[in-house]
Amino acid sequence: GATEAALIGYMFNEGQIPNPRGGVFVLDAIGKYNIHRFMNLCGELGIPHAVLYDHDSGKPTGVPIETTIQASRNAYTIGIDHFGQDIETYLGIPSTRHDRKPQHVMWHVKQGKVDKAKLIELANKIQALLKI
Question: Dihedral, CA atoms, 48, 80, 118, 100, nearest 10 degrees?
Fold first, then answer.
């Protein structure tokens, strides 16, 4: 989503995650319901891609979404991973209104309110996902 794209893009720009050869683009699929569509498109266009999404604590809707994402894995899919709940919970950031999530997360990061060990853990998760 927009929150993950903002934070992960920021982490790449700040050098907290090394850029792989050829660079990286962080795409907001506008909801996990569209991820399989982008995976299929990237596969058809020969674009290497990795997927990171919120699992929403195993809500009933999560099973078909996860199944669809896994079924859309193709020769260009580098990796697939998810957060158990969402990125805010993963980083220990209190929840806020849906429309304010990206700036809320970025504010917490910039203010030093996120445990540095969790940001390092996130960077390692991204690196493992992209195999860099």
Answer: 80
